[in-house]
Input
Amino acid sequence: MNPSPVPVPFIVRLGRSFDARTWQIVGLFAAFALVAVPVMHLALPPDHPLHLSTWFITLVGKILCYAIVAVAMDLIWGYGGILSLGHGLFFALGGYAFGMYLMRQIGRDGSYQSDLPDFMVFLDWKELPWFWAGSDSFLWVALLVLVVPAVIAFVFGYFAFRSRIKGVYFSIITQALTYAAMLLFFRNETGFGGNNGFTDFKRILGYSITAPETRVVLFALSALALIGTLLLARYLVTSKFGRVLTAIRDAESRVMFIGYNPLWYKLFVWTLSAMLCAFAGALYVPQVGIINPSEMSVANSIEIAIWVAVGGRGTLIGPVIGAFIVNLAKSWFTVSFPEYWLFFLGTLFIVATLYLPQGVVGLWFKLRGRFRNDDAGAVAGDAKGVRA
Amino acid sequence: MGKSRFLLCGWLLSVSLAQAAIDPALLKPLASEDSDTKIAAITALAQAAPAEALPVLKALADDSLAVAGERVVIVAGERVLDAANNTEISPAPAAREVIGINNRVRRELSAALAALRLFSTERAVRWQAAQEVTLSADAKMLPLLDRALAAEKDPEIRTRLQLAHAQASLGSTDAEVRLAAVKTLGESSDPKVRQLLLPLNEKRGDSWVEPDSAVRAAAGTSLRSIEQRLAWADSLGRAFTGLSLGSILLLAALGLAITYGVMGVINMAHGELLMVGAYSAWAMQSVFRAYLPGALDWYLLAAIPVGFLAAALVGVLMERLIIRHLYGRPLETLLATWGISLFLMQVARTVFGAQNVEVANPAWMAGGIELLPNLMLPWNRIIIVAFSIAVLVAMWAILNLSRLGMFVRAVTQNRPMAGCVGVPTGRIDTLAFGLGAGIAGLGGVALSQIANVGPDMGQGYIVDSFMVVVLGGVGQLAGAVWAALGLGVFTKFLEGWTGAVVAKIVVLVFIIIFIQKRPQGLFALKGRFVES
Output
């Protein structure tokens, strides 16, 4: 505990969110993503044993984006106690907004040689719908990526939290929300490319999207985004705000009786979580090269919850580990034993909820015999960071 | 097949009728090269001797009418008949040339044939013919229709014929005849008649399609009355499909109303319990097909208990093995049951294959009741509505009249107290969950009759089922019923304007907004309490 009443500058406070050992790990990870990966992918010849293939870069880059989503989910679920089954919607919205920018970057190189994206020519549209106006500008699209999901999350969350909808009720209506959005995006006439969504991207900011250099940059950006997300989340959950949020999770009525209004706390973390998801979605789309409405399916959103549950709720490193475990298993199963993937995933859901209430991170600490039921959690297990 | 039967039929007819002869002069032009002459000959023949002309015209339609020298003959397999008097010619003339017809002649010919069949002695044939004639009646057929009307006794067929007559009269040159026809047509409620009357009030270039203003006015009146009846039947039909969708939603959601509504268990594998029921129906169909082919139509009755038991068994296992360890942790229950649902889906895919299986409606569910010409109530929908009512009543009775139901209510209202007075709460939980799962199985059996049965079928119902239960108010059977019916009818009426998918989106958004305003659902338990 820090009894000092002297206000600490924000940047110092942010820096103190991680302790020294954590900063070392973060530094190592950054060095790996920003230096080692580019060198191993670009400089080493393909037959070199340390060469990293495009497949590896894409897979890990994709999972880094998922990890951001998982941390965002953990903020709202692990710390706020609100299980959203609609995070796939925000992820996809970010992806769609950025996907449209990539569609516009195709320019006249599409199969119809038109200024309009191919799917619009195919539907015999003459001009862009109003909501895609300005989507050829990177800055405007970057704004869209964050603002649209934020506005939707804010409006939806405001009404839901104001009516004190919580627990399973909230999960079910978020599920309905993403389901409705999926049906909407599947329609051809809504301007989102229908079944196929957006794909066949060619360029990003003028650079070829399939070039190894572009891939490496996107990978590095994803890694940096993940570090930034973790830092922000850590800052939040160790702040006074985070303590109130955790208190709301554990006993909302008591927090209200003390005089806090849970609405704004929940609403803030909910909107922030949606924006992080959307940001991850925008990073995800150029790396995998497609965005379609199935990203909004109910199953996808629930899968996000299982990354968090497997890794460990209420810790910040847990969701990252969970996202890696589940998605690496997924890419291995769907190639080697496609028919067993659902068995594995189903069992994972059951085992994680029945036997791993704190996820693998919790299991790890239990095995080390020093597991503490510390709600604030810690990136490296020790909650030595500054507490307000 | 149709061809040979027609031939045989024509031949029998010709034998049964007196061997009245046709004037060969009427037959001669049939062999003409010119289509117009042929058509004129067909009309003349049909009007001069309806009964005798039938076999000749049929032969013409079947490409078995031929010219042999001066005579027109019918070739029937090995035999050759004289078309004029239907007697066999032996020896068969060797040199004969089949009379070919083009599409235009064929159209006229089939209309004439339909008209001729109006004189058949069999009611079914006449009814069919009357319907066909209504589609293609024109002024040339008027004399024939007059005669048919004079001979017809059956009221239903008469109504049809009168319609056809009116339709044919529209082409008449006499304004009076047309006026009478338009008025008669106004009594129909057939959408096709509407199509017929519509052009009368249109202008083609500068002149009206219909020159007489009195006829135009009458056509307007008739159109309005037809449209009124059509709109009425349309709303009635929509209300029925809404009711039917509501009953399907109710069947899908009833099981959930017990497991979620009464017990508070968030069962995301509910859709897969429906799937278990639907696959039971398929399994019973296969069993009946293999061992009791004679009673195949009744497999569905056997599927009802089997579907119930199979789903109830899966439900009991789920509860015993997994869900009971998660009571009081709803979010974990949600995730674990989602895991179960993935597991069950993959089991179905492994055991039954990834493709949808084919479940046939029994014969007694085929067809429907035709209330109005444009309103047909299919039997399978009616039966599902009735079945959902039956399930609802049974469930109500179990919950409110039986000892098990009393225990279930006691446990959900006050678990420790119920335990204190000796209710085996653990076993009651299992049984109640099994009951909810079994009812989901019944829903699945019903769904197998109208929806695709496949490993993924459950996923499509899970959101809908939760919407029904949440909208109705958790813990409220009556709420679930009203919510299901309301959603069904609301969706179907919306679909009328917006199309199916947009209607679905609107409904979901409506529910989301509704829940914000009234988180406790339509019917809330009254009381004051602080949650958690």
About this structure: Residues 374-388 of chain A have pLDDT under 50 and may be disordered.
